[in-house]
Amino acid sequence: MTVGRIVMYVFAAMLAGVTIGLLRSLPPDAPAQHGAQPRIPVVGTSISVRPAPSSPTSSPAEPSSSTAATSPLALAGQDVVRPGPELPPGVPVRQRGEGWWRTVPGTTAQVGTGRVRTYSVEVEQGAVVPQAQLPFAAAVDQALADPRGWTASGDVAFRRVDVAQPDVRIRLTATETARAICGFDLPYDTSCYVNGVVYVSAPRWFRGAQSFRGDLEGYRKYLVNHEIGHFLGHGHEACPADGAPAPVMMQQTFSVSNDRLAEITAAAPQGPAVARDGKTCVANPWPNPGVAR
Question: I need a surface site. Which of 38, 108, 120, 239 has the fewest CB within 10 A?
Answer without folding.
Answer: 38
